[in-house]
Amino acid sequence: MPNVTIARESPLQDAVVQLIEELDRYLGDLYPAESNHLLDLQTLAKPDIRFLVARRSGTVVGCGAIAIDTEGGYGEVKRMFVQPTARGGQIGRRLLERIEDEARAAGLSALLLETGVYQATRIALYRKQGFADRGPFGPYGPDPLSLFMEKPL
């Protein structure tokens, strides 16, 4: 298997911008706009976001981020995505583990997330990694197309 690295990088690189555009198209095909809670590239580049890039043999194949809520003491998992051609190699799991490491290093007590109900593989990964269902949090309201999850750290 080719070498996979995961590191904090800028989301403003051309290859990452293309990956985020691919993610936006994917989510746009699954959910209506009001059920897509996406952080834009400029927000992903802010200091309270830890943006991670997965590379396989140097090529961008995935990403994930943690948005730090210092008032709430938690981090929110955002923008988790692995290109379809790179799936099956544990890259998503490794990204999520690195996000957990970043959250612990920031002194956060929990990771929270919102994901879409039609993403069974992603939901299974979150559950396998110890996330449990919970109600809406932060800026979110109830949405039949959203699933909210939490993992204490």
Structural features, described:
There is one protein chain. The model has no long low-confidence stretch (mean pLDDT 95). The protein has four helices and seven strands, in the order βααβββαβαββ. The protein is 29% helix and 33% strand. A seven-stranded mixed β-sheet has the order 1-2-3-4-5-7-6, with helices on both faces. The chain has a domain at 4-109: Aminopeptidase. The chain is α+β, with helices and mostly antiparallel strands and 153 residues long.
Short description:
The chain is 29% helix and 33% strand.
Structural class: alpha+beta
The CATH C-level name of the domain at 4-109 is Alpha Beta
- Look up the CATH topology of the domain at 4-109: Aminopeptidase
Helix content: 25-40%
Shape: globular
Report the end-to-end length measured between terminal Cα atoms.
31 Å
| Strand arrangement, major sheet | 1-2-3-4-5-7-6
Strand content: 25-35%
The whole-angstrom Rg is 14 Å
GO molecular function, one term: acyltransferase activity, transferring groups other than amino-acyl groups
Function: Participates in the tryptophan-dependent indole-3-acetic acid production, which is a phytohormone released by A.brasilense.
Keywords: Acyltransferase, Transferase
Protein name: IAA acetyltransferase
